[in-house]
Specification:
This protein is α+β, with helices and mostly antiparallel strands. It is built from 9 helices and 7 strands; from the N terminus they run H-H-H-H-H-H-E-H-H-H-E-E-E-E-E-E.
Length: about 180
């Protein structure tokens, strides 16, 4: 017998912004139900809230940074900054990160944790693909990732669990 979450992609959503997301993207490929059908990079590319992130991971912002095959090729938990999160970064700072392929790759992979982690198991410290830890705290509609607030989490794709967040996470300086 299939679990509720397998039958209803919206069954395990958390975050105070889920209703607004569902209202903004009620149907189609970028909706909660639509994203569940595709691998994560494809699903994100269909989501109108994730255009900057999609451009960053697809090589559109820096031709030397293309993480699409990697993201579509494994099981992940992705903390996905929405467009407003990128817009909040001063342009000169964002341009500097985008121009440096190593820095951009580091920032992007700091948003990805191996394995799919459900909202009821996400609280705690997780080691990212970038290699450093991030901390998720809270539950339900009050979840944070480091200093970012989860807008809507538990969004399923064919190979990932996605948490839309309101800030771009910066990996700590390596010691």
């Amino acid at each position: 017998m299939a679990s509720d979450s397998a039958m209803d992609p919206a069954a395990n959503l958390v975050g105070s912004g889920c209703a607004a997301y569902a209202e903004a993207v009620p149907s189609g490929e970028g909706s909660v139900a639509g994203m569940a059908k595709d691998p994560v990079a494809v699903a994100a590319s269909n989501n109108p809230l994730l255009t900057t992130l999609t451009a960053a991971v697809s090589g559109e912002l820096n031709k030397d940074v293309d993480l699409v095959d990697t993201l579509n090729g494994g099981e992940f938990t992705v903390f996905a900054p929405v467009d407003d999160a990128f817009a909040a970064i001063p342009k000169a700072d964002l341009d500097a990160v985008v121009k440096d392929a190593d820095t951009l790759s580091s920032v992007l992979t700091y948003h990805v944790v191996p394995g799919q982690i459900a909202p009821d198991e996400i609280d705690g410290t997780h080691t990212t693909v970038e290699g450093q830890d991030l901390k998720v705290a809270g539950s339900g509609d009050d979840l944070t990732v480091n200093d970012a607030k989860v807008i809507c989490g538990g969004v399923q794709t064919a190979n990932a669990t996605v948490y839309l967040i309101d800030s771009v996470l910066m990996p700590p300086a390596k010691k």
